[in-house]
Amino acid sequence: MQAHNFKVKWGMVIDLDKCTGCGACSVACRAENNLPPEVDAGNKLRTADWMNIYELSNGKPFPEHEVAYLPRPCMQCGKPSCSTVCPVVATTKDEEGGIVSQVYPRCIGCRYCMAACPYHARYFNWFDPIWPEGMEKTLTPYVSARPRGVVEKCTFCHHRFNAAKEQARINGEDPTALPEDAYIPACAEICPTGAIKFGDLNNAEHEVSKIAASDNAFRLLAKLGTDPQVYYYSKREWVRKLGDNYLKNAKGEDHV
Amino acid sequence: MGLDRRSFISLVAGGVVGSLCTPVIWKTLDDVSIWSQNWPWIPRLNYGEEKKLATLCKLGGDAYGIKVKTVAGNPVTAEGNPDHPLSLGGICPLGAASVQMLYSPARIKNPKIKDGNNFKDISWDDAEALLAEKLKEAGAATAMISGDETGSTAEILSGLVGKLGSQKSFFMPAESAPAAAAVQMLGGDGQVGYDLENAGYVLLLGADALGSWANVARNAKAFAASRDKAVRYVYVGPAQNGTTAVADAWIPCAAGTEPLLALGLAHIIASGRTSYAPGFADFERYVQAYQPETVAAATGVPAERIMNLAKELINAGRPLVLTASESGHGLGAYEAAAGMCLNMLLGQMNAPGGVRILPWAPKVVESAAEKKDLLANDLVAYLTAVADGQEDAPKVLLVHSANPAYALPNLNKVQSALDKAEFLVSFSTFMDETAVMADLILPDSYALERLDDSYSPYGAPQAIYTVAAPVTKPIYDTRAAGDVLLSVAAKADAELGFESFEAVISAKAEALEAEIDSLMEGTPWVSEEFPTQDLAFWSSPLKEIAVPAGAEKSVSLSVVTHLKIGSAAIATPPFGTNAIRFDEMKGKEMYVQLNAATASSLGVKKDDRIKLANAAGECVALVKIFEGVMSGTVVASLGFGHTAWDDFSRGKGDNIYKLLQAEAEPGTGVSRFGSAQVTISKA
Predict the structure, then answer these.
(1) Helix (H, G, I), strand (E, B) or coil at B643
(2) A-B Cβ pairs (cutoff 8 Å, strict)
(3) Measured on CA atoms in the order A177, A180, A183, A184, is the torsion positive or negative?
(4) Distance (Å, rounded) from C-alpha B403 to C-alpha B78?
(5) Is the peptide bond before B259 cis (omega within 30 degrees of 0)?
């Protein structure tokens, strides 16, 4: 598939040297995007968590062991594997800004996209969502509640993008040239250590584009060529190496 | 006229082509795709005016400012408050999940009175009259427990108890009490804070500063700012956690022995140094006992590493040492003092970038106990004595913002003491383990529904007074505990001198010379004044800190707190369950962490179901092999194993408090329970 070239490319850089794995981003994402609370969250094959946090290990025994935490939103790939397999055009990458869309009413729940996504960033609603009595009043007005049978994923809080563009129009500014802090997803906004940075990767003035260009920046499974718009940053080599899960006995040291 | 084959085909083909040209099919398809997902049981969204209102989050051990977004008056999400010095825009996982707690299935919707093994509803008037009568009868045999050290509600409670002639006012155990006791040992007087923002080097002795210790949101902001300033963060403790994942170094140190390391460091730093600080000579002689080799043997930190750490501290500008128990409570007073002395030795007491001693909160309810006396009152010791019959059981026990039936060591004894209390009154917002045991429940309105205040939580670097106006009206028949207590006090002929909780807050603002109007609007009052202190090295008699002795075949239990799982006061919130990772909980069973060497020496492997046991009790958990744990140590998280609350937390995992046994610290008598020894066997 020919990838689009966007003038603005929203991207995220997550500084793993600042992430403590506390879980606040994951909780805030849930509230912002109207994911229902889950009683049986102990079965991760049936849960949905747009911002999932993984624990990374350098694989060495005590006392050489090191630990890091990796929050995983949707990578908003430049060449998304999900949208190419969707039979009903429910997930596309065609809007200026480069966010991979997810149109719930179009989704037929075939889950091809879930099989295609190498990041496990997509979730299927196995059940109808249930909010305990009254708790549905805490639904935000931004994202419709999804019924069972529909796939969903992180959208970089796309509604906040719309709101920022709207605000720019009201202010008589150019909605296609939003300043750095005009649009920021919920997770990035509340992160206590400021590990999650957000901005336009194509704009040299935005901090994310500078960090993304660093030698310490990397992307998950870069060798697959999906061209993710989520970058990670770590000064620790072992963390960067985990970004590509090449096999221990694989031939050759280098990866793409 | 017959229909021939040709015209039939034309008709069908024409019909197909014609219908494709109409929008009917496409509209129908579109409608089907929408309506097949538009079931009545899928909730609709509410639209309306959006606002952001400043309030307080007190769900963890900390109290800090957050902002709650409301849509058409309904609170929907919470975020950090960039204008509050203890949030600076950051929020903890409990804060992020706080709005939905408003509708938690565990909420108590109206006053209740015990009826056999169940509860029956009672009106507020009857409930207040009943409590007033019971209080009059009980008089001085009344006691109170509060889990909120920062708010005025606890002061009103203590005032009521005091007015009735009782000294039995208690806070739930936390880090603040040992820290205040430590400062007192050094001759200081005040609440303890830490100027993390201006520290040049941070040594965390067991303090999980970025996970659960003190002002987590603000600690995280200070840490983030330190990354551009080359400030080193070194964590010392038995296991890796969220803090070590980002700290510059982790120094493995046996559970509960961090204060010994502090004294070992103090020995190295003190020797060869001349100081005219009062008491220095005595102190230097005292720490002679803590030679690097001795400390190395007890803590597991190699002597060379201790020497290097001491060098780093000496060479760093503005080093700050934070001593804590990994679990967030149970540190002894001498243990806290060991770390405090290290700060003193480094010239960091009452100094920028060091320990700050803040003025105590002004007391406005006359009959209330002084905060420092309240902190010194030992709840665990009291309840244990009640259970053992050494102390009379209270006739009325008032419990506010606390869950002692779940979150205390010596849990069996605590529960039997609560049972012995003749009339147990719970002011809980939620049906927690203590409320279930209560004779009368007067449900406090939830944080977002009531007026509340907070004076500098433990660790705050300056005096801060925050007032939170209600974000929404109470959704159930609940009332703010402060107002209920004032009204009950009046009915019990124990007038406290205030008509309403708002009047108490106004009086407090006046005492601080703060503007009540701007406080009500959410602007905190901040003071940079620090009373002068006359400090001396450890002016009370020096006591040796004993090395915890492990029994044969036992392993050290390191107890940790993860806010996403809950706190001493709050069970896992509905929006917190998903943040618990697959390697922290499987189905309804929780994991504990062991390294591979320890696991193999115990004959257990990954995912085995094991029993952790000691004299206090036993717990069941699954094995997670995690190499970030010292050998001979098992790491377990608090916050699981609830028996009350709701489906989001009830029956999930096991309650590690069952394994904690308090012992009186020699010399001070403070209940110590930061760590424990357990035996591990397959379950």
Answers:
(1) coil
(2) 234
(3) positive
(4) 24
(5) no
How does B106-145 read in b/e, with b if 16+ C-beta sit within 10 Å? bbbebbbbbeeeebeebeeeebbebbbebbeebeebbbbb
Banded model confidence at residue B345, pLDDT cuts 50, 70, 90: very high
The pLDDT of residue B510 is 96
Stated as kind and residue range, the H or E segment containing B677 is strand B675-682
Query: Residue B32's pLDDT band (boundaries 50, 70, 90)?
Result: confident
CATH fold for domain A10-242 = Alpha-Beta Plaits (3.30.70)
| pLDDT digit string, tens, across residues B508-526 | 999 999 999 999 999 999 9
For B340, what's the count of Cα atoms within 13 Å in the CB-facing half-sphere?
A: 29
Contact B92 A61 (CB under 8 A): no
CB contact set of B117 (below 8 Å; sequence gap of 6+): none
Question: CA B151, B382, B443 angle in degrees (round to 5)?
Answer: 40
| Cβ–Cβ under 8 Å, residues A228 and A201 | no
User: Cα angle vertex B454, ends B451, B458, to 5°?
Assistant: 155
Which range (B5-14, B204-213, B281-290, B651-660) has the least confidence?
A: B281-290
Q: Which residue in the set A23, A35, A48 is minimally distant from B93, CB to CB?
A: A23
Q: Which residues contact B94 (CB under 8 A, 6 or more apart)?
A: B57, B59, B60, B563, B564, B566, B567, B570, B573, B576
How far is B43 from chain A, CA to nearest CA, in Å? 7
What's B519's DSSP letter?
H
Burial class (CB in 10 A: 0-12, 13-18, 19+), B540: middle
Residue among B309, B329, B331, B178 nearest B257 (CA): B331
What is the rounded average pLDDT of the residues B336-356?
A: 93
**H/E run at residue B436:** helix B433-437
At position B160, the amino acid (one-letter code) is: L
**Can you read off the two tokens belonging to residue A239?**
């963390």
State the residue for tokens 């296991």.
B239
What CA–CA distance (Å, rounded) separates B571 from B580? 13
Contact A138 B564 (CB under 8 A): no
**Which of A133, A124, A121, A152 lies closest to A34, judged by CA?**
A152
Separation CA B163–CA B365 (nearest Å): 10
Nearest CA among B269, B350, B281, B275 for reference residue B315: B269
Beta carbons of A190 and B630 less than 8 Å apart: no
Closest CA to B423 of B440, B400, B399: B440
Domains identified in chain B and CATH numbers: 50-103 (2.20.25.90), 143-174+359-527 (3.40.50.740), 196-353 (3.40.228.10), 555-682 (2.40.40.20)
The burial class, CB within 10 Å (0-12 / 13-18 / 19+), for B402 is: buried
3-state secondary structure of B144: strand
Pair B99, A31: CB distance under 8 Å: yes
CB B323 within 8 A of CB B331: yes
d(CA B435, CA B428): 6
DSSP code for B313: H
Q: How far apart are CA A93 and CA A80, in angstroms?
A: 8
Task: State the smallest CA–CA distance between residue A1 and chain B in angstroms.
Answer: 27
pLDDT of B548: 59
- Go through chain A and tell me how many residues it has: 256
**DSSP H helical segments within B119-188, as ranges?**
124-138, 152-163, 176-185
Cβ-nearest to A139 among B43, B96, B574: B43
Tell me if B628 and A66 make a contact (CB, 8 A cut-off): yes
Pairing of strands B191-194, B440-441: unpaired
Quick: pLDDT tens for A104-161: 988 999 999 999 999 999 999 999 999 999 999 999 999 999 999 999 999 999 999 9
